[in-house]
Amino acid sequence: TTLQKVVGICRSYPMMAEMRVVILREFHGLFKKEVAEDEQEQQGSSYDELIPYLDQPNPTTLLIITDEKAPAGNTRLGKMIKNSENVGLYLFDKVPQDQVADWVIHWVNINYQKQIEPAAAELMYHFVGSDLQLLSTELDKVCTYKKSDEPINEEDIRSVIGVYRPYTVIELKKALVSKKKSESLFIAEQMLHKSQSDAGEVIRTIGFFYSVFSSIWQLQRLLQKGLGRDQIMKEMGLRSTYHYNSLVSDARAFGPAELPAIFEALLDADMAIKGYSKLDPQTVLMMMIKRITG
Description:
Elements: H1 3-11, E1 20-25, H2 27-38, H3 50-55, E2 61-66, H4 76-83, H5 100-112, H6 118-128, H7 132-145, H8 154-160, H9 169-177, H10 181-194, H11 198-224, H12 229-236, H13 241-252, H14 259-276, H15 281-293
Parallel strand pairs: 1-2
Helix pairs in contact: 5-6, 5-7, 6-8, 9-10, 10-15, 11-13, 11-14, 11-15, 14-15
């Protein structure tokens, strides 16, 4: 597809509909390809092909252009977008990882008028990741599977999505916080068995638990200062009482005196997995879990 073809499609009229929607993805990639093809002919920027159309667009066509970055403001196209009444520029930031679960809850409610438990939304994120397109595809499956009006729970997520990866750091955290050493070691072993890179899995797991115990330490510090729930949530950037209550529950399992040794275990594991030890990734992870669970 070339921009010339896209403009031709935009100028044509829709068939059996009032409007035609044209979506152009990876705009800059297409532009670079055309420049490479036209370099010998010393043609102008292929962006310029869009300018006459954007100046006088077809009223029956909605052209949507998506890319990771907008055209530079000092280019002819960039200036056209800024000054034209026919063009709108919208910037969308990536959803932060700590807000993906909230996005899942909102998406399920808006698109299927269903409810999903916060714990299930967290599990969904850890199963699928933060790719919103992939998440929406998998959520379609879950919402279709769930026939009743009851909220989607963790078991529903495992039934539909869990076949891809039976264990995640969520299950490991539950076992570890409960100080169930044998269960924690088993889950960790299964996680490594399913991973494509043992070292990568261990690095991600160490980072996850550093975040968990940093939050526990911060919560305990704020509680010692006598702050109330609302003040703590604001101070820590917690967006729901579910996350607050979950963190309080986790914090009860560890006394303030235990945390320095836990952070030391995490630091030792981080250094070992990054080349400061001859231990293999599985041994590094198992030793870390044993030191945390006591």
